[in-house]
Amino acid sequence: LEIALKIEAGMFVYFGQQISKDYGKKFRVLQTTLQQPENTTLRQNLLTGELDPNELCRLSADSLIAPEKLT
User: CA 66 to CA 71: how far, in whole Å?
Assistant: First the structure.
């Protein structure tokens, strides 16, 4: 729950403290990406602190793709 709150806070700041269509799109991208079974590295990095939740909000959709899917 703590990580989810940090991600939400990071998104709020990143989008200029406004809930917009882009905010909603980014939320859905992050939700989908983090739920994908093959994206274990991303989840692990987030849970261990190697990836800061604020940084996660700034990553492009392409950067969130699991490396296994790129090959």
Answer: 10
User: How long, in residues, is the chain?
Assistant: 71
Find tokens 């991600």 and name the residue: 7
Tokens of 16: 């200029």
CA neighbor of 7 nearest in space, from 28, 37, 30: 30
**Residues 6+ away with beta carbon under 8 Å from 15:** 22, 23, 26
pLDDT < 50 stretches in the chain: 70
Taking CA 19 as the corner, what is the angle to CA 18 and CA 21, rounded to the nearest 5 degrees? 125
Report how far residue 46's alpha carbon sits from residue 10's, in angstroms, rounded to the nearest whole number: 13
